[in-house]
Amino acid sequence: MKYHVYILYSASLNKYYVGSSEDVQIRLKKHLLNHKGFTGKAKDWVLKYAETYNSKSESIKRELQIKKWKSRKMIERLIDNFCLKKLSSLYVFFI
Fold it and tell me: Which of 29, 43, 87, 94 has fewest C-beta within 10 Å?
């Protein structure tokens, strides 16, 4: 079974949220439902980044590592680097 670390972004709050889950899409739907947690404050969360791991403990370890950064710039750098890698792989594909 695969586990994922993910980063969500809310434009209305201008905030990021870092979490981990077995199924990112189902978890995102839960974040968008009415609840009292941090993500319940907004309904515009979008997935910006995800990593996949082979074990729950690995994904939680990575989630905590990212949360310990407490740095918006580092999170945005992680997302930007991910997007650049995706774009460069598409570029190679089309050549």
Answer: 94
